Amino acid sequence: MTVTPLARPARLRPGARVAVVAPSGPIPEDRLAAGLDILRGWDLEPVVAPHVLDVHGELGYLAGGDEGRARDLQEAWCDPGVSAVLCARGGYGAQRMVDLIDWAAIRAAGPKVFVGYSDVTALHEAFAVRAGLATLHGPMVAAATFLKDPRTQESLRATLFEPETVRTLGLDTARPMAPGRAHGVTLGGCVSLLAADLGTPHARPSARGGLLLLEDVGEEPYRLDRILTQLLRSGWLDGVAGIALGSWAECGPYEGVRAVLADRLAGLGVPVVEELGFGHSDTALTFPLGVPAVLDADAATLTLDVPALA
After folding, report:
1. Cα separation of 94 and 211, whole Å?
2. Rounded mean pLDDT, 237-243
3. Exactly one of 125, 215, 219, 275 is catalytic; which is it?
4. Which of 24, 51, 83, 118 is catalytic?
5. What CA–CA distance (Å, rounded) separates 208 from 235?
6. Is the pTM of this model over 0.70?
7. Facing residues of 185 across strands?
8. The dihedral of CA 98, 102, 104, 110: what is its sign?
9. What backbone torsions phi and psi does residue 95 show, to the nearest 5 degrees?
10. Does the annotation mark 280 as catalytic?
């Protein structure tokens, strides 16, 4: 099976209602309020899902129970008055609730804007594989980067409202790790979540034909080596067209991280670009998943064939 383009949602219009959900970890109320203010400043109407501020009674790293988090996402998606579903933060917990969602109902409701990253990678994969829908690997409403960094905010805003203006993606920090130019469909996210998906029901069989986006946080170099080696040994990386690398926050000095990435990925014979500027970084650009694009290692850019949103 080759990675193929997915159904893109429509761009947002001023006044659109957008639902905010918490599929993973608990949300600081003050940060949520600040994020909602940014959305209102874009002339959006944010609607906070019922369980967003919940905290699990025994497992304090979860934003309430699995059923409530899943229900929030499904009800927001199936509400015809909601144009987008934005995640409040990552953390941990999306894997626990992903199988509680009625994906047939999600498919029937059709494409909508869905934004998040980190632990939300598990949901990006589910939207792609189980619903055939393109999503946005982008900043979350209550995340510190979104609240503090104007470029992060503008990347998301432009993608939501003027997607044709953000067709070539990447920061000035980007540079080639392995040369070449490749065409494929974007997929990926947090590499530890991609590895954790292996062997589970409905998991993507491989990244064949895709342009794979990889980033992570808090994984020491030897653990990144283990994760990438698992993807290699499983055959999941067989036939990948190209690899775009984002940030590796709290993974140790970048020289050590880079050595692992080069050792595990640069020998695949496909273009690899590093430090493109997505993920757990001071500036987190919005990258669409499920969209055809060209990865040019020499120019250190990812250029979309079509705008992220229709």
Report:
1. 23
2. 98
3. 215
4. 118
5. 10
6. yes
7. 210, 292
8. negative
9. -60, -30
10. yes
